[in-house]
């Protein structure tokens, strides 16, 4: 970004560079003031004491008893949700591209409905429904409820991703398949889907970030013992080190999600560069748009044209 | 059939949801615009700060942020944001958390809006002798604002849904009332349907209206 011209300003000359240095210094002073204030208020409540942070570095039991099992639950819930939501979403997405208006509109309503409702509402419903209508043991129920809520929401988002992936392919693919006499189902399973899956890989990975983040809801509301839920017992056992616990949990989440995000954008760049594919990509940026309810201008093209 | 609704302040709960949305939307629009300004500024240090903020905040679950405002900020550090009553404190903390989280997404939406303006537009503007403020006022910002309506609408809808997370620190909004009602009444399907419809009424019109506006003002390229 350094000396590339941007829309907003020219490549800085000597005077602009001096001004930039001045701004940098002012900004640094402001930032230092904020950091100092935060550190002072932490120290004031005795949260910076080494005893509060030491367990995470010197005591393996913190990791063995609290963090790693909790992280395992987070990962299990996220992975399960993705694995179940993906085929469901692909199915819904294909139905949305059907030639029959009834099928199309029913699938469309389902997708619109679940995208417009908060995940937490879906989780609360699933939790209560499992306790009322099934005999899943109360120990397992939080996991079931979290996964169900996430699957319902993410299947509808992934349906849009799949649809966008299929629509992003050049129409020549469908035309060529028709020309050699393939049927509609064959075109979908043999030509469009395999290419669409490649095209939407970046979007899938970045949706995984959303799923990982939403598992924390289960910890806070349903008693699912994931990473966030481990903060309370940890800080109770290690001398009220709430700030330290939150920092460690946040850092783990950031590291995990940052790795996923970086992987997704690498994948996207690779696909866009690639010579073997059609170059069709449902990118990381598109996911946010596809996750919101409503028609999306870029994806309104019909199934065959 | 709807007798059990008596004794529950359904409208009041959804009103709190709306209030959370509006206050956080205003807050994150302000802070998000500042962040976006930093992210596109010529000063490398500010750019670095903006990028770091967005990358960190976007990768933390909102739930962690909201629970932290209560357990960390309020109960450990004693930050009460000038409020005395418990409900007011939690409401303000929730708005703070939602604002901190949503502004990262506002920042990205605004930045992508600025990035949609082709470089040639600015080069042409400079070529006919417009000064920098003129370029910004007449060429860049009008085009950037127009392309930003749709992504900002998506952020607003996501924010509306995210306000339910405030239930984790006991703000009396829709999701918390839903949990309470499910525990007390044997009307699971009906209760869930009511809350689902409530959220549909909040999110769908927002999406339709702003989607229409976005299409109306979009720059055809």
Description:
With 305 residues, chain A is mostly helical. Chain A has two domains: 1-44; 50-299, MetI-like fold (Orthogonal Bundle). Chain A is built from eleven helices and no strands. Chain A has helices spanning 14-44, 50-58, 60-96, 101-115, 119-133, 141-168, 171-179, 184-221, 231-237, 242-273, 284-291. Helices cover 77% and strands 0% of the residues of chain B. Chain B has one domain (10-217): Orthogonal Bundle (MetI-like fold). Chain B is built from eight helices and no strands. The mean pLDDT of chain B is 90. By secondary structure, chain B is mostly helical. The interface between A and B is large, with 66 and 72 residues.
For the record, give the distance between the C-alpha atoms at the N and C termini of chain B, rounded to a whole number: 54 Å
CATH H level, superfamily name of chain B: MetI-like
Described by strand count, sense and barrel closure, the largest sheet of chain B is: none
Give the radius of gyration of chain A: 24 Å
Secondary structure tally: strands of chain B: 0
Keywords (chain B): Amino-acid transport, Cell membrane, Membrane, Transmembrane, Transmembrane helix, Transport
Subcellular location (chain B): Cell membrane
GO molecular function (chain B): transmembrane transporter activity
Membrane topology (chain B): Multi-pass membrane protein
Short synopsis of the structure:
Chain A: One of its GO terms (cellular component) is ATP-binding cassette (ABC) transporter complex. With 305 residues, chain A is mostly helical.
């Amino acid at each position: 970004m350094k000396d590339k011209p941007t829309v907003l300003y020219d490549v800085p000359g000597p005077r602009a560079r001096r001004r930039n240095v001045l701004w940098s210094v002012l900004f640094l002073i402001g930032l230092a003031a904020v950091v100092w204030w935060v550190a002072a208020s932490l120290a004031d409540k005795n949260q910076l004491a080494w005893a509060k942070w030491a367990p995470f570095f010197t005591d393996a039991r913190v990791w063995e008893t609290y963090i790693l099992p909790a992280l395992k639950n987070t990962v299990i819930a996220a992975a399960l949700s993705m694995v179940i939501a993906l085929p469901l979403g692909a199915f819904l997405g294909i139905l949305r591209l059907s030639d029959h208006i009834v099928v199309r509109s029913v699938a469309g309503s389902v997708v619109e409905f679940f995208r417009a409702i908060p995940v937490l509402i879906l989780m609360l419903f699933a939790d209560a429904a499992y306790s009322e209508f099934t005999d899943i043991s109360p120990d397992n129920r939080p996991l079931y409820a979290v996964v169900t809520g996430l699957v319902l929401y993410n299947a509808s988002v992934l349906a849009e991703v799949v649809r966008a992936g299929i629509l992003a392919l050049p129409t020549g693919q469908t035309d060529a398949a028709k020309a050699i006499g393939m049927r509609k189902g064959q075109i979908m399973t043999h030509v469009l889907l395999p290419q669409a899956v490649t095209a939407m890989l970046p979007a899938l990975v970045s949706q995984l970030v959303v799923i990982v983040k939403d598992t924390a809801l289960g910890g806070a509301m349903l008693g699912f013992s994931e990473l966030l839920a481990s903060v309370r017992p940890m800080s109770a056992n290690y001398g009220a080190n709430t700030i330290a616990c939150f920092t460690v949990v946040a850092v783990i989440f950031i590291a995990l999600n940052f790795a996923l995000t970086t992987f997704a954008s690498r994948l996207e760049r690779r696909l866009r560069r690639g010579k073997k594919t059609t170059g069709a990509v449902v990118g990381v940026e598109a996911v946010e748009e596809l996750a919101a309810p409503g028609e999306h201008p870029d994806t309104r093209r019909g199934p065959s044209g | 059939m709807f007798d059990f609704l008596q004794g529950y302040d359904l409208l009041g709960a959804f009103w709190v949801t709306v209030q959370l949305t509006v206050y956080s939307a205003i807050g994150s629009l302000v802070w998000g615009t500042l962040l976006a300004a930093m992210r596109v500024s010529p000063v490398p240090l500010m750019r670095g700060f903006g990028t770091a903020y967005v990358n960190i905040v976007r990768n933390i679950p909102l739930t962690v942020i909201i629970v932290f405002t209560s357990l960390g900020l309020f109960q450990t550090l004693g930050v009460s944001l000038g409020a005395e009553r418990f409900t007011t404190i939690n409401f303000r903390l929730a708005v703070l958390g939602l604002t901190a989280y949503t502004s990262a997404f506002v920042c990205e939406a605004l930045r992508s809006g600025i990035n949609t303006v082709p470089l040639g537009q600015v080069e042409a503007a400079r070529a006919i002798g417009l000064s920098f403020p003129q370029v910004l006022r007449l060429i860049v910002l009008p085009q950037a604002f127009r392309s930003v309506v749709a992504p900002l609408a998506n952020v607003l809808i996501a924010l509306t849904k995210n306000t339910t997370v405030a239930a984790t620190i006991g703000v009396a909004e829709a999701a918390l009332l839903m949990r309470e009602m499910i525990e007390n009444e044997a009307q699971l399907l009906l209760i869930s349907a009511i809350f689902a419809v409530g959220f549909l009424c909040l999110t769908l019109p927002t999406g339709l209206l702003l989607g229409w506006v976005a299409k109306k003002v979009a720059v055809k390229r």
